[in-house]
Protein: HTH araC/xylS-type domain-containing protein
Amino acid sequence: MQNINDELLIHETVPTFIIQYKTSEITASNFHFHSGYEIVWLKQGEAKYIFEDKVYHLTKHHVLLFKSTEFHKVSLSANSVYERVVIMFTDEFVSFDHPILTKFKQFLDDLPSPHYVLQLFTWKAEQFEHIVDHLLREQENNQWEQKSALELYFLELLLYLGREIQLSYDPKSHLSTFHASKDIGVHERILKEINVIWDTDWCLENLASRLHFNKYYLCHFFKKEFGITIYQYIQQRRIYEAKKMLINTNMPIHKLAKKVGFTSDSSFIRSFKNHVRMTPKKYRQTTNIPSLEF
Structure:
């Protein structure tokens, strides 16, 4: 397994639409976010997709839908296969206000957390793959009305997913909804406790006590399963929250620093610059949210 030695945000332009078939085990080493939405179809292998409060252990023919603005990261086991198709798109991709796209976005917005997993059985996956292949071929070949064709196939894909989502609520259907394993429950319990303390003057001993774990075991388990240390996770979470506040509020830097758990504005600025490669003030003046490896 390989990781990209990236920071939380690298200043890049997000494409309005891209679809990629990938087998590389290279993933972003840190938690990250960017504008738009993602659809991930795991064709072979397994991967953990980690969000702020949820962890999904994806296996063959799982399809994950989520808002890319969510704090997220991929974690792979050593020597694991990671064959997937990833679709990224923004609100600007479809040139007209189509009800299928509107309902897809509304579906994610109405969930407790804006991510959802479908599990496709083999006979379902064949139909899904047929639509995906159309999109892959169309993107590779610059033919007449390519953009229009991509929009049409993309809307067909959303229509297919929308209908499968509706079927997933029917216990008599051939589609099963995603159920977390016992191990994933442990992951989510750890994240839940960290969500309580990430913006405080926390200490490892208290966190381990709340979880009823030995602190050394907790550190080992977290690093093994999430790919980073607890300290790194909390720092990245603080920077993520700070970025949102820098974009969405006019809060002074010194107040914002304390709001996200830093003891001083100087330590906040230093940490922010280390992660983002620019000062908070400079970041506030920017509007582009980058794309990272997935």
Summary: Residues 2-177 form a domain with the Jelly Rolls fold (CATH 2.60.120.280). Residues 28 and 219 are 21 Å apart (CA to CA). The longest strand covers residues 37-45.
